[in-house]
Amino acid sequence: MKLYSKADGIKKVKSMKATGGAKVYKIKKVKTKVGGKNVTMYNLLTRNKTHSTGRNPFGLDMVKGAYLIPVVEGLNEQKTVEIGSAYDNNGEIELVIDKARRPDSWSTVNFDLTQSFYSGGGSSRETSLERQKKIKLKPSQINKIKKIIKNPEDKHYIENDNFRVSDILDALKRNK
């Protein structure tokens, strides 16, 4: 299955809609994965029942009366915030540990690695996290965070802020 860039995919959708032979009457937009890549699949529903994947003049894959146009999502469209994401916040590491109760928010904990202590936690909006620089933690940084959460004083502060050490360790394992 051919994957289209966003510009080429939109152009193809518009040209198919304008083509009289395609008989497109509705366009559905669905997010899915094709070959491990996140794509937006445009399903162009057609009244043309004689066309199939191997036999249509447009060279598109089809399924039950619909032309399929897969458009690869750009980096800015893909989900960038997830459990285990780490952000450099002016020398502090902000680690995402869970989805917060409020929509579009994530539970985060902050560590000051220069002075080796837990500096707080709370929830951060997804949009503010996306504006920050996402980083992959180095093994030395991961070990430093593990050492901080083993410290009884820091562990006490973490638990007082209603975070679990096990959630932090899970997030560290998922950091990519």
Count of DSSP strands: 9
Count of DSSP H/I helices? 5
Structural class: alpha+beta
- Rough outline: rod-shaped
Question: What's a quick, concise take on this entry?
Answer:
It contains 5 helices and 9 strands.
Features:
176 residues; 2 domains; 5 helices; 4-stranded antiparallel sheet; 28% helix
Can you put this structure into words, describing what you see?
This protein has 176 residues and is α+β, with helices and mostly antiparallel strands. The chain has 2 domains: 6-72, no CATH class; 86-174, no CATH class. It has 5 helices and 9 strands. The protein has helices at residues 6-18, 126-131, 139-150, 152-160, 165-174; strands spanning 24-34, 37-46, 61-62, 66-72, 86-89, 92-99, 105-112, 117-125, 134-135. The strands form 2 sheets. A 5-stranded antiparallel sheet has the order 8-7-6-5-9. It is rod-shaped and about 70 Å long. The mean pLDDT is 85.
How is the topology of this model organized?
Elements: H1 6-18, E1 24-34, E2 37-46, E3 61-62, E4 66-72, E5 86-89, E6 92-99, E7 105-112, E8 117-125, H2 126-131, E9 134-135, H3 139-150, H4 152-160, H5 165-174
